[in-house]
Amino acid sequence: MLLREGLASLLTGAGFEVVARCGDASALLQAVAALAPDVAVVDIRMPPTHTDEGLRAAMKIRRDFSRTAVLVLSQHVEPALAMTLFADSAAGAGYLLKDRVSDVAEFVSCLRRVAAGGTAVDPVIVSSLVSRARADDPLAALTPREREVLALMASGHSNQGIADRLVLTLRAVEKYVSSIFGKLDLPATGGESRRVLAVLLFLRR
Amino acid sequence: MFAGGGPAYSAGIDRQTLSRRTRLVALASAGVAAATMSIALALPGGRVGQAVLFVWISLSYVSCGLLAWRRHPAFGRLMVVVGLGAALSTLAWSPVPLLFTVGQALDLVVVVLFLHVFLAFPAGRLSGPARLLVGIGYAVSIGLQLVTMGLGGFGPGNLLRVVDAPRAADAVHTAELVALSVLLLAGVAVLGVRRAGSRPARWLVDAFTLGLVALAVLLVMGVLSAPGFAVVQAVTLGVLGLAPVAFLAGLLEARLARASLGELMVALRAEPDDLSPALARALRDPTARLLYWLPQYLCWVGSDGVPASLGESATLIRRDGEPVAAIVHHPSDDALLDAVVAAVEMVLDNGRLRAELRAGLAEVRGSRARVAEAGRRERRRLERDLHDGAQQRLVGLSLRLGLLETRLDGDPDARQAVVEARAEVATSLAELRDLSRGLYPAVLSAHGLAVAVESVPAPVPIRLICEVPGRLPEAIEVAAYYVVCESLTNVGRHAGASSAAVSLRLAGDRLLVEISDDGTGGADPDRGSGLRGLADRVETLGGTLRVRSPAGGGTRVRAELPCG
After folding, report:
1. Fewer CB in a 10 Å sphere around the end CB: N or C, chain B?
2. A93 touches chain B (CB under 8 A)
3. B454, A79: Cβ pair inside 8 Å?
4. B424 is a domain residue
5. Are residues B224 and B319 in the same domain?
6. Which run of H or of E encompasses B268?
7. Over the stretch A175-204, which tens digit does the pLDDT of each residue have?
């Protein structure tokens, strides 16, 4: 409740129009069906059982109301649950740690990205995936800079977003990306959200 | 030399052997003589067929009685008496009044003798209702027979006639026959009640008790002067004459059982953990079981300490009036049981102590599991409270601080203070997150082991293999999860490792959890480090936890959890 109200005032302040505030999954689904918002921010644990109602509601929204993007907030980092959310596509979906709301600018930028059909993956999930042990680790072939770019790609950032963060030119980022895809033997696919999913799947296998 | 220097007691043995042989010869001769007499008596009256049946009965009972005499004197004697009694009753066929009178007086005593011998098998003694039945039988068969004869029944040769009242005599005789047939049927009922069920020879004897039913029918037919009397009589006497063979078989069986008592003694001396199999063998009753009474739990338990019920038929073993143990068995009236009880009593205490120990252990295990379960529930509740309470508030607080920060663009000092406060809150949130994760992994209950284990924070790169399809009991999942968490925490703290591997897989009905690292090894499960607590947690669920940690050789923690 407390968080919901705070979030509503944060978003209003950032120029969003908050069309509904819901206490549980069924109220959420009704509101999404009725109001067709651009994006829904969903806590993964909701009444009544406080286990995974939020996640299930988010999946349902993605399946039945594809017009509405979904950003899932969680108290804990659960790579497997994030991957469940992105199972079919990472477009218009995000999975962030709840704490991220305190960095207002970053949070708002993530939410805008998701609402616009992009992806937001919590950096902690990305780093836990990157740090996995692998036989003949293909990531070992990457330069430190390429690893940074890879992590940002996996978080859902666009090439421009990566360029802004790392203070690089767009062309330089594009070079890094194609080098990474070559080294990891990933097909250079079109859309950015497909790129996110490909990278995440690669990191998780 | 051998004949001259014999021991002093040899004379005693000789005398015993001699008397036994004399008795054997004398009684055998008596039997043969009685049989011969029967035939001699039967010839003039043309009763050869009947005589053959009586000879068959006499010789069968006398010879089998003599065979049984040595081992079972009481029962052997009884069989000989039945045989001779049957022969003597044929005196009734004699034309000589005195012999006729004696034979007639004994005529129906033979019927009660049959009842007696069936009821007395195998002990040779009667007890309880059987004793009463047979007593009444003798009184009726002698008393009413004499009254009938006194009233002038059975014709002119009857020396006991006092008055001549044929109608009264008939009435009394009819009453006598009916009373005897009722007694016979009551005897069959007594046998039915105490049948042991499990022993083949008993069954054989039971089958021959049908002879008693036939005898009762025969008596009633005599009253009604029904046709076919001769045929039924022939069948009945034929069957009754076969019964001694069944008796012998039954006695042999009892002897075998007594031999198994010897085996029981040998088995008991080895103090087996569970006395029941030896008991079952000795009693020839596969369902026989020894139970112990544990007064502190107010229940009967088996040797495994598991509570059991006494069932319908049990023999209690008491000490100072209090029950200490019981042998549960098929209904049986065997003297063998007394011997088995005596044998068991000698070794009872150790077995009882062991059973008590096991029952206590089961109790402790049960309460340990209950305590663990209560702890798990409590942790779950706490995690939920934290999530909905403190964590939510802190997130709300950090959000407000974030909003505040955006409004303080013009005041760098204040803004810096807010940034620091926000960092503090972020740290608190991270700590709380670790704490609540340690309390109870909420993701487990909704998504299972594979999902939960994947998000365990890893201090070093990890190779994770989780081959656990579907869900396991919650307690097992939680324990496996903690094994992984705690072991990985140890890897981060102590192992100095550069990588680790976690594997979870099902092997039959057990879950195998293995965490290995390439660190320095030398972990000691007994010296803190959380491994002891982990082992407790696993053992509470009936699992095992092993730690192999040679110095310089990495550490391998392996837990096996039953999940069937």
Report:
1. N
2. no
3. yes
4. no
5. no
6. helix B229-269
7. 999 898 888 888 776 677 678 888 888 888
